[in-house]
């Protein structure tokens, strides 16, 4: 399933409360679009929907969910899906995205993105769940590759094989997080470019970029708490050079700097993106 063109190309920013009001003071030309997590606005009144409306008046809005738990085994939350569908319709969304993980039990959202077992059973299960989620929303649900620190149970296949099988089984578009790819490549010892070479780039509808933290013992933790380092820029460039124009989102969730510094990072990513796009055009 391809939903390319569903969001404006270029480097946008994941919206966070810490700078929402300050961002709204800036001209629309500051960003091509913003990405929001609908969970921050769903089933809330007053300031929250009003703030989202102000954002929407200024920028196209792309949606990225946190709590669908697409790999979970409990039935989907009906009320969540009803509210999410209504919001996506209000925003005129052409696709929605969430993580290729599980993150909830019937009683609790675990507020963590937990890896799925890399097994055939999980592939079939996620495939069914993604198709159900898309039916419920009336939109394609793009899956994001996640970072993980240990496989869940003995893996029957690699992370890459699992991702490819799930995309086939679900017919879902891919939200490619190049920071997650970089983090996993360091922690699990594989070549991220060999991984990317097997990703069906025509399925990629959006790219995420972020930074991470490297501990003294070498473990790389996906904090979204630092600027994206050069290797992440390089992976972004590799993708854009081969896939062409795409929406790219800078995600920052911890140690959020003052807005001007964050926008400087958006500009730096934009330079990487523009150079890669020029190479894509030169390839004809
Ligand atoms: Fe991401």
Per CATH, the class reads Alpha Beta
The SS-based structural class is alpha/beta
Report the end-to-end length measured between terminal Cα atoms: 24 Å
Percent range of helical residues = 40-55%
CATH fold name = TIM Barrel
**Tally of alpha and pi helices:** 9
Radius of gyration: 18 Å
Bound molecules: fe (ii) ion
Key features?
TIM Barrel, binds fe (ii) ion, two-stranded antiparallel sheet, single chain, 41% helix, 284 residues, alpha/beta
Q: Can you offer a commentary on this structure?
A:
- The protein has 284 residues and is α/β, with parallel strands linked by helices.
- The protein has a single domain, classed as Alpha-Beta Barrel (TIM Barrel), CATH 3.20.20.
- The chain is 41% helix and 17% strand.
- It is built from nine helices and twelve strands.
- The chain has helices spanning 20-24, 47-58, 78-91, 120-137, 159-170, 178-188, 192-197, 230-243, 259-282, and strands at residues 10-14, 34-36, 61-64, 96-99, 102-104, 109-114, 141-144, 174-177, 204-209, 213-214, 220-221, 247-250.
- Strands 1-2-3-4-7-8-9-12 form an eight-stranded parallel barrel, surrounded by four helices. The protein has a two-stranded antiparallel ribbon with strand order 5-6.
- Strand 7, helix 5 (159-170) and strand 8 (174-177) form a beta-alpha-beta unit.
- The two termini are 24 Å apart.
